[in-house]
Amino acid sequence: MSFTSMHWGAYRPRVENGRLDAMEPVPWDADPSPIGASIPRAIDSPTRIRRPAVRRSFLERFGDHPALRSPHLRGQEAFVEVPWETALELVASELSRVKGEHGNKAIFGGSYGWGSAGRFHHAQSQLHRFLNGFGGYVYSVDSYSLGAGRVLMPHIVGNMDWLLAAHTSWQNLAQQCELFVAFGGLPVKNAQCSPGGASDHLVEGGIRRMAEAGVKFVNVSPLRDDLQGPEHNEWLAVRPGSDTALMMALCWVLVEEGLHDEGFLQRYTVGHARFIDYLQGRVDGIAKTPEWAAALTDITAARITTLAREMASKRTMINVAYSLQRSVHGEQPFWMTVTLAAMLGQIGLPGGGFGLGYGCMNNTGSGRKAFSGPRFSQGMNAVKDFIPVARVTDMLLNPGMPFDYNGQRLHYPDIRLVYWAGGNIFHHHQDLNRLLEAWARPETIIVHEQYWTAQAKYADIVLPATTALERDDIGSAASDRYMIAMKQAIEPVGESRDDYSILADLSRRLGFEEVFTEGRDAGQWLRFMYEESRQRADSFGITLPDYDQFWRDGLFEIDYPPNDTVLLQGFRDDPENHRLPTPSGKIEIFSERIAGFGYTDCPGHPVWLDKPATPFALHLLSNQPKTRLHSQYDHGAYSQASKVQGREPLTLNRQDADARGISEGDVVKVWNQRGAFLAGVIVSDDIRPGVAQIATGAWFDPLNKAQPGCLEKHGNPNVVTEDVGASSLSQGCAAQTASVEVEKWSGPVPEITAFEPPVMVGWRAEGF
Ligand SMILES: Nc1nc2c(c(=O)[nH]1)N[C@H]1C(S)=C(S)[C@@H](COP(=O)(O)OP(=O)(O)OC[C@H]3O[C@@H](n4cnc5c(=O)[nH]c(N)nc54)[C@H](O)[C@@H]3O)O[C@H]1N2
Ligand SMILES: Nc1nc2c(c(=O)[nH]1)N[C@H]1C(S)=C(S)[C@@H](COP(=O)(O)OP(=O)(O)OC[C@H]3O[C@@H](n4cnc5c(=O)[nH]c(N)nc54)[C@H](O)[C@@H]3O)O[C@H]1N2
Ligand SMILES: [Mo]
Description:
By secondary structure, the protein is an alpha/beta fold. The chain has 26 helices and 30 strands. The strands form 8 sheets. A 7-stranded mixed beta sheet has the order 6-17-18-19-4-5-30. The structure holds ligand MGD (2 copies) and molybdenum atom.
């Protein structure tokens, strides 16, 4: 059997006459993702990058001083298609020049992005290994997904990867949970995906089985559809960014009514007394009562009070979506989730406690063994400089400037060369107009891409990469059901090459081929990585067949551990022998370590911090798209079918639309002090008033490329989001904290050009 694996599921590629005709769902998946249907027409559309290409001035002035190559014209100029040989010589020569003149510390290879699902052809890992072999690079830490969470959690419970792999299973929830309170909902749209593969979609079924078992759901979210399905679910249309206040008021009621579990707090946590002082107003004079929270959240004091009582009287799971921490002070909702669950005293019990992102990714709560499969070693980085991933614009604009991060004072390095493979910064970063300014700073930008995204269009040298369907690979992800032999289905489109073969060729030109390839070709690497993983599999009680058998079978199923997974059960049963990896070995409601950092924007226990003033009337939610993964396959059929007048749909509450004379299907301009974009309107009663929602991922499409800061015509919300860190602790992405105004667009509706390749000028015809 031939399968392939994408971040959004496993498929059987159907090929007719060498062309990809369909991506058929696999027979075992009860809820396959429609995103797969986007690939067949898109994969060899005109948007595909077919040949290496170089920005015109960069090529024409190649030997000159870098400033003379017009870096400010990135994204505006024509490209010249060149043979591979030329392109690779240019890349090798630039890498050598920059290393020689400025050292490896001048190379930024963070290269954030999801790339594709296979374990070997993971573009970012490939690039990291390559740059390590070359002497190192400035790297980035954490993720856009969980910037605040990844830094906070090790201080107060344990690291995120460990926690995510150990989440209480859906099966256990169906049997033991009575009340599921979901901050940010349980959006099935997001559970289509998991990093590395989602071979069996289980969240819709998980929710259904819980509902059938009588579990009550409370959806605390600005959007009703963040929790679909269960008929008896309750929607609390919270004001975005106010969940921390709501959780505090729930705690206040528990303490006031003596419903909190003092015994649990004593035995398993530190610092609860100081937090309760704060809760009751003995620190800042403000008691965090339901009345106090009602004014901030728009949830009535009466409902907050009864909800607290229900939570105490039932086996309760409190879940928080990643989105809540992707905001200014994003540490607080995560810290409060843990604190509220600790007050209820159900952490470590079946069906109760807390969840960090059920519904965000498919594999969370699968209950399967968390074996993550074969791994590709990235080697050692000789450069020690790094940035928190979302501080990339700050770094490019402010070399040498100090910044705070997790108790350290660091400085931004001086970057001359940026190398990216497998990510789209014009998708993921905030305040794109500020990024455009920063993006003109480096001397050289090299990108490997499959499609003509803005990431490629704003580069100097673009190298065409294959897609997962054009190469062999192994698909596997922690807690996923199947390890998959991803067999090549079609020939590489155009002259595209694997990231590995591109980098292997470069390593040869640069004199470290042996270090990079260890003498293996791609096929030999797959076998080697697989063999290496067999020992790790053993330690999970998994016996992998030999490689040839696995490849013939096409897949291997990962089983369940003997006992059902319940998060932190071991710690609860025996806290002395299962100490948490925190300074106290317990859950830290007060963290001496964080307090010691002295950050006013993230002190030693959870606090309510007033949000920055919002000058505009509407809060903008830019959440994950239902019809694609981030910006991937925005040019595909499924995403395209969702557009309104060619633009990304923006949902407005009926009252907000009426007040502005806006109707369903209209094109609107969404703007604030940072920028403006056009979108197509959906009017709905299922979004709370005062909130506008647009998914991320519409390809960046400025009206006039020669005018940075101009109107974006397609619906990319990152032209208006703010580029600030969540706090001095994490410096995490804070994209959800954005306010905007929306008005009807009465001008002519400009054509979408995001999917057109850039203008190409001929290599010889132009006489280079
Ligand atoms: N406003 C706002 N912004 C956000 C978010 C938000 O909620 N709101 N969410 C953030 C989050 S959580 C994330 S994770 C980021 C995601 O941001 P990214 O991960 O950067 O987004 P993708 O669109 O997945 O970009 C992956 C790119 O890699 C390319 N690619 C795929 N496979 C390969 C390959 O094999 N080789 C090469 N060379 N290239 C390949 C694809 O064509 C695509 O352009 O966005 C963040 N940005
Ligand atoms: N189909 C699809 N699935 C994906 C992705 C994708 O691009 N496409 N991306 C994947 C990635 S990389 C990640 S990190 C995860 C992200 O997982 P999340 O970050 O949780 O995803 P979002 O869709 O941004 O947010 C979930 C919901 O939270 C709600 N929300 C936003 N702000 C607030 C708030 O202040 N309070 C409350 N109570 N609710 C709020 C929004 O209504 C939103 O629909 O999703 C993954 N799943
Ligand atoms: Mo993410």
